[in-house]
Amino acid sequence: MKIPPGISQGDFSAALDKFTQAVGRDWVFTSDEDVALYRDAFSPFMGEPEERTASAAVAPDTVEQVQQIVRIANQYKVPLYPISTGRNLGYGGSAPAYSGCVVIDLKRMNRILEVSEDNASCVVEPGVSYFDLYRHIQERNLKVWVDVPDPGWGSLIGNALDRGGGYTRAQFRNHFDAHCGLEIVLPNGELLRTGMGALPGAKTWQQYKSGYGPWIDGMFSQSNFGIVTKMGFWLMPEPEAYLAGTVLTGKRDDLHQLVKILNYLENSGAFGGMPDLGSPLLGIQTIEEYARSMEDTSQPPTDPELEKLRDRSETGDHAALEEYGRRKSMAYWTCKLPFYGPAKAIAAQWDYCKEKFSALHGVKFVDGPLYRLPLTAEQRQQVHWPQFGIPTLNMFSIGARSRSNPEPTHGHMWFSPIIPRTADAIFEANKVFAAAAREFDLPVLRFSLPSCYWERAFIFIFGFPVTTDPGVNKKNRTAFYKLIDIAAQHGWGEYRTAPAFQDAVMNAYSFNNHALRRFHETVKDAIDPNGILSPGRYGIWPRHLRQAS
Amino acid sequence: MIDRRTFVQYGVTGLVVTLAAGSCKLSGGGTGAETHLALFDRRFAAARKFAQTTQAQGISIRAITGDVTWVWFNELHPLWKRRPVAIAGLTTYAPLFCLERLAWDHGMRVIQRDPHDIRATNEPDQPLYAWVIAPARSA
Question: What is the Cα–Cα distance from A340 to B71, expressed in whole angstroms?
């Protein structure tokens, strides 16, 4: 059995005995076979001594048991690492940031405490997955949607606390922003409720977010300041209809105006769904096209002439590619706009968007199908499920062998910098990251387009493969660290990352001699003086481990 | 989620997907465990052949197209919440990866995981895996 660093065998055994008294012997896991289930399936240190692994796991069923575990851990100084469902693969999974932690597995706390159709909200425990809530809603025929990430097997609370995102309307697809009220077990075992939940007998915990006084909810996301045991979310009322319209333009330089108009329309609420950029001429699929293509094992080969023109475009000759597009009726850029709402209203919204995009010379539009909701079984087979609040596991085909991916990968780690919402930023980031990829011997993509999960900013999401070859993983880790630095030099920071890179990303947020990190550490030392809760998570280390390092 | 701690041995020692000469079939399963169904990826001839032979043995089959979501959500998850039941399959890596992790929460383990030599059947796109997920047996 692994023992947490700095803890004696006697103390660890005593702590495990007390954990057992708190939760029952069936729910304390110490065998190698059981503990191995908490390894990060996509660890970039897979099979190497540096791989971060747990010493044991304990699975409480109630808030009171969580409080007991935390108090016992304080008594013996045993580090803990709470997970909701531990399925945040690509950004960490269920393995701790600090090897030797005891994982608190919250999967048994899987109660859906409330779903209100009238308030379009819910309250859930951390073990509730998107699939669980979707099933609950479907079985009761409730007219609300849950915004799901891709994949949807994880926890609502876990994903929101990691500040994950989804695919429906803007105010729901930022999962942390969509929350309303937290219940937290603090590192000393005390129970805290935020927002209106701090008012005993409050009738508005899931109706008014900020309560009174400093709004501290954000401190419990991407942090190690507490264990969230309940969380409220605002849900999306099931819309009457869905419509997607696509804007198509023919010139490379159109991207500047396209993005500018897109931003204006989104910021002014002319459409609500997640815009999706693509480029048929450059061979860049939209997210929806990409998700659907993963099921297709027989993708047609690309026209050799187009391949040559794409290569020439890389060296600055875009005119020939644009001419090819005119000849073959192939757009340079596409932008899909999803609309949710009353059929009449969204048709009018799309008309208004077309009017604004008509400022682009030669622009064309494709009216997508209008779906009356809920979808029929046949319609469901034609759409990207997460855009309709339907969870899926389809994304796990991402590393599969295909014509464009001849060597299947074991997993992936996401490099996800946030960049400005401008075409200039897209072009600059492509130059910077392509140069870095060449320098560090990574596969160089011709051109990449960012995603629009968040309003006001773009996000690039690059998948670094995790393989079974430690040499390849080491090379990719080295490149990943370098890319964090290169991005920071250009003013771009990652929105989220796996434990292996959390210190490096935190170091990049260094304004005024790391004032932000020092503030985190001040809070950490004040509320968790023994440093028992998730040491190192998101680059926040307790005092004794900062001194040790 | 059931108690993993009390399970130390696998309960379906006889159940195996037999690979031979580029084809595979399900056999065994005679130690008290019920084989509920077999999954196959309809895109691959080898998997379709496996489904035929499995169905002929009286075992229910379910077709997928790379993604296991619908079978898991509608059938396996409700079933496994009631009791752990063995399943087998000939699929690509992704469905097996997902089902393995989902099965852990129900006290199940992958007890067979064999790459199937698809080159023998002239299907170059993706490697297939013959697999069995079964309940672990109480000590």
Answer: 28
